[in-house]
Design a protein that fits this description.
This protein has 390 residues and is an alpha/beta fold. 34% of the residues lie in helices and 19% in strands.
Length: 390
């Protein structure tokens, strides 16, 4: 039986912050944009009465995180506004499957035909609801539905026909960032990840492999490149992380790959307190957040969400056969990952866009293969020393 919420419950959800409700931005109420509404006083009767075809449920954080949520949200906004389709986002009250499921069900009650779920945290929530709502489509980014039971060694995976998954080859994006940093002359590097989940690990291990590839290509001496490696345990800034980054920079670290939501704020703050300290961003092009962000290891979040929505609507509001119950894995060969090359975003001193295109093409044609293994540290040459306990 479907777990459909009543309209009364939707109103209660708005009061307690489940829903970031919408207010219309044009006289045509079929096109809406989300405002971060958390109290009943902010919710107009008109907004409560509207329905929204496309809904995004945020991962930990909000749609202005300058990272994963925002990248996915921009794809929703772009497609919906171009095609005159209503849209909204919902922010779960807490980091739990129950809260995510409640937000998903609230969006369905409010008329969602397709629900966008950015992040591996939605794997178990989508697993739980996908068969309860066969008439609703789900787009899951960075994961595949599973029951979350690791007691037998691995959970049970199952993707229903109303679900399409998109995963990214983060190891390639990390590789490009590490390669570019060393090619630009940086030899004292750092990786500061959020939680040690597969996507973040792939970013970090790719970063290490890219630095090693560049060091060998340049013929650097053994031990020429040093990498400090650390997981903070969260995707948010903290005093503890900033203090650690202060220590890294003061000890000679030149550039840190800040990998995970808003934790980049702590890394940037530490870089601002140091001399000749730089930062590498993640997921989206974060150049506008600080002059110290020299590049970003990006996923094509906005494009992949836009393209998936187009496939859904172009096929009569259901997934095409190639999408139904399947997983797309996007990498360099599909422009699913990369570094930004626009004038404002390109802040390397000597590494050129032409050199970047050369290594990127080697990923595309398979000349260079980056390992995606996450359960063992990557193998590197003696030219690179990695401190995984930094």
């Amino acid at each position: 039986m479907k777990r459909v919420l009543s309209l009364m419950l939707v109103s209660l959800i708005a009061v307690f912050g489940f829903v970031a409700c919408n207010k219309t931005t044009t006289e045509d109420t079929s096109v809406t944009t989300a405002a971060n509404v958390t109290t009943a006083e902010d919710v107009t009767t008109e907004a409560q009465d509207l329905t929204y075809e496309i809904a995004l449920i945020t991962d930990v954080g909000n749609i202005d995180d300058k990272s994963f949520n925002e990248g996915a949200w921009n794809g929703v906004v772009e497609y919906a506004e171009e095609n005159d389709i209503s849209y909204t986002y919902y922010r779960p009250t807490e980091d739990s499957d129950a809260a995510r499921i409640e937000s998903i069900e609230a969006s369905i009650t409010a008329g969602a035909k397709i629900v966008v779920c950015p992040g591996y945290l939605f794997e178990t929530a989508i697993y739980a609801v996908q068969d309860d709502y066969p008439e609703v489509a789900f787009l899951l980014l960075d994961g595949e539905p599973n029951d979350g039971d690791w007691s037998t060694g691995a959970p049970t995976y199952s993707t229903s026909d109303n679900v399409h998954n998109v995963k990214y080859q983060e190891e390639q994006a990390g590789f490009l960032a590490g390669y570019a940093a060393v090619k630009d002359g940086y030899t004292e590097l750092g990786f500061a990840g959020g939680m040690a989940v597969p996507a973040v690990i792939r970013y970090g291990f790719g970063f290490v492999q890219g630095a090693d590839y560049a060091a060998n290509e340049m013929g650097l001496a053994d031990g020429a490149v040093n990498i400090k490696y650390y997981y903070s345990g969260a995707f948010v800034p903290s005093t503890e992380l900033e203090t650690k980054m202060d220590l890294w920079y003061s000890a000679g670290t030149e550039v840190v790959f800040a990998c995970g939501g808003k934790l980049y704020l702590s890394v940037v703050a530490a870089a601002e307190n140091a001399t000749n300290a730089e930062v590498i961003g993640v997921d989206v092009d974060q150049y506008a957040e600080s002059d110290l962000i020299i590049t970003s290891a990006m996923k094509g979040l906005t494009v992949s969400v836009y393209d998936a929505l187009a496939a859904f609507y172009d096929n009569g509001e259901e997934w095409p056969t190639a999408y139904a119950g399947t997983t797309s894995i996007l990498g360099a060969d599909t422009n699913g990952v990369g570094l930004p090359t626009a004038d404002g975003s390109w802040r390397f001193n000597s590494f050129t866009v032409a050199e970047y295109n050369t290594i990127f093409d080697k990923l595309v044609d398979g000349t260079v293969v980056v390992s995606d293994v996450t359960d063992a540290n990557p193998t590197v040459s003696a030219k690179v020393v990695v401190d995984y306990d930094a």
